[in-house]
Specification:
- With about 270 residues, this protein is α/β, with parallel strands linked by helices.
- The chain is built from ten helices and nine strands.
- The protein folds into two domains: about 1-170, HUPs (Rossmann fold); about 180-274, 2-Layer Sandwich (Pantoate--beta-alanine Ligase, Chain: A,domain 2), CATH 3.30.1300.10.
- The strands form two sheets. Strands 1-4-3-2-5-6 form a six-stranded parallel beta sheet, with helices on both faces. Strands 7-8-9 form a three-stranded antiparallel beta sheet, covered by helices on one side.
- The protein starts with a strand and ends with a strand.
- This is Pantothenate synthetase.
- Its main location: cytoplasm.
């Protein structure tokens, strides 16, 4: 695996290559990330990953400075997964001057996760567009666990007419149903045992919807109440349309149930498509 930090070096290495598939990450890689690398191989013949902890998408109360940096271990995992190129810029490499030009997503950025993390999706869209311009892939893979992020990137790519196929990678879970996440490492042993409850509550909503329940608000409240009783602090549980995350008026469209809730000091997110 070739590793490049400078934009010019990566562009030179990729010059003339076709079938480039890109998987951007912030490092601290786990089996979920590696699954995305493996899925990428099905969409092209050159897999490029990136590791960059993007300051623009962290709010003042987020954990930018605490975010785990595990570069050597990440490189070993990427090499074992058969990744061809790794782009690992420093902040100076990627932002040699203040990033004054930024991508402003539409109203979707201000709901669900965006309501609780103002400016987050602006930072995500900006860095992803910049990475796209650097790598110039034919396809890019983003995990479905970050469902709202996937929608923002997919819609940005379509509306800006970028010649990139956005692939949604399936969520990888532990045996007890917990979605794999870099933030799971913050959980205590007791919290880790409790954490699968989030997925169980989403499954209850899914099952109720499949049985014909149409009162979305009631289902959302029941899940939030169950989490609260168990000691969680919930930002949202929401039933939304898959296409644009709008509030559904019918159960006869593809739906997704999303949630974000804090267990101790760790904020966990999850979703289930229906």
């Amino acid at each position: 695996m070739q590793i490049h930090a400078r934009i010019a070096d990566l562009r030179a290495a990729l010059k003339g290559r076709t079938g480039v598939v890109f998987v951007p990450t912030m490092g601290n890689l786990h089996a979920g990330h590696i699954s995305l690398m493996e899925q990428a191989r099905a969409h092209g013949n050159t897999v490029v990953a990136s590791i960059f902890v993007n300051r623009l998408q962290f709010g003042p109360n987020d954990d930018f400075d605490k975010y785990p940096r595990t570069f050597e271990d990440d490189c070993a995992k990427l090499t074992a997964a058969g990744v061809d190129f790794l782009f690992a810029p420093t902040e100076t490499d990627l932002y040699p001057e203040p990033q004054e030009y930024q991508v402003e997503p539409p109203a979707i950025q201000n709901v669900l996760d965006g309501e609780f993390r103002p400016g987050h999706f602006r930072g995500v869209a900006t860095v992803v567009l910049k990475l796209f311009n650097i790598v110039q892939p034919q396809a890019a893979v983003f995990g479905k666990k970050d469902y709202q992020q996937l929608m923002v990137i997919r819609n940005m790519t379509r509306q800006l007419a970028l010649p990139i196929n956005i692939v949604g990678g399936e969520t990888v879970r532990a045996d007890d149903g917990l979605a794999l996440s870099s933030r799971n490492g913050y959980l205590s042993l007791e919290e880790r045992a409790e954490a699968p409850r989030l997925n169980r509550e989403l499954k209850k909503i899914r099952d109720a919807l499949k049985q014909g329940e149409m009162d979305f608000g009631k289902l959302e409240k029941q899940a939030q109440d169950a989490l609260t009783v168990a000691g969680w602090k919930t930002d949202y549980v929401a039933v939304r349309q898959q296409s644009d995350l709008s509030i559904p008026t019918s159960a006869n469209v593809p739906l997704v149930v999303l949630a974000a809730s804090r267990l101790g000091t760790t904020r966990l997110i999850d979703n289930i498509e229906i």
